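Annotated sample (chain length 135).
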Amino acid sequence: MKLHVEGVWCKTRTEFERLAKSGDYDLTVSYFDIFNRLIKSDPYSKEPSDIIVSLYIRKLIQRLLSDTLEKEKEGAKILYMFKTLDTGSVSGFKDFVNDLIEEPFDLDLIIINRCDYPKKGVLSKFDNVRFIDHD
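Output written by the structure step:
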């Protein structure tokens, strides 16, 4: 099975959602959406830890991968919005996905409406980088 992940770095949730609607993704994952969803589902409205959010994301990706295998599809395409874009978070995400799938996967980056650029060495962690400017 071939997995293709497109990471997104943007300022607003609206930009992420616009991209999600324009593509044919099997799964769209935003750290902030999951964070907010978990707050709403908590009876005391407490903020979840990063570990809880990560476990939820892992569960979503695992479910997608098992559904893809069940349906005997050739691959899956994920759109993932990074909370922060630094070397540690990108390496951590790659390790996270490598734990779920044994085969190599593609990891691309889409940067939307950002004037600031990530620190040195971050962009080299991705297979491809694309810049999108919406006016």
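Annotation: The first helix runs from residue 13 to 22.
Annotation: The radius of gyration is 15 Å.
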